[in-house]
Amino acid sequence: MTNVQIQAEALTRATVSQSLTNYPTILEGFAAMGIPMDQILPRENVFTFNAWKALGRYVRKGEHGVKVLTWVPMSRINDVGESESIGRRPRTTTVFHISQTEAI
Q1: Is 104 exposed, middle or buried (0-12, 13-18, 19+ CB in 10 A)?
Q2: Looking at the 3D structure of the chain, how many domains does it have?
Q3: Out of 32, 86, 91, 101, which residue is the most buried by the measure of CB atoms under 10 Å away?
Q4: What single string gives the DSSP state of each residue in 6-71?
């Protein structure tokens, strides 16, 4: 998978997902960093590193984000050579607020 494909997939997952599980963590984490609660909008201005790159922005060096738990799909190649889904596994990732990014 190329970097562009990885970034596009990260953006798609971030905008399409319906889970609200990480919202309290995101809100509390960025509020602790001094960002006003009314400016923290997950899926609008809070994304992962790769999702920001897909949007044409980069995270400034030295910025710290908020760690969240996400579920990523797992697949394997079957005997016929086709990829088949075998479930999902938890992964920790870091999200960043738009104020921590700059346009490329």
Answers
A1: exposed
A2: 1
A3: 101
A4: HHHHHHHHHHH----TTHHHHHHHHHHTT--GGG--BTTTEEEHHHHHHTTEEEPTT---EEEEEE
What is the C-alpha separation between 6 and 28, in angstroms, rounded? 28
Inter-residue contact 20 to 70 (CB < 8 Å) = no
Residue 29: per-residue pLDDT? 96
pLDDT in tens, 86-99: 998 999 999 999 99
Segments of the chain with pLDDT less than 70: none
Alpha-carbon gap, residue 99 to 63, rounded angstroms: 10
The boundaries of the domain holding residue 72 are 3-103
pLDDT at 50: 93
d(CA 7, CA 3): 6
pTM above 0.85, yes or no: no
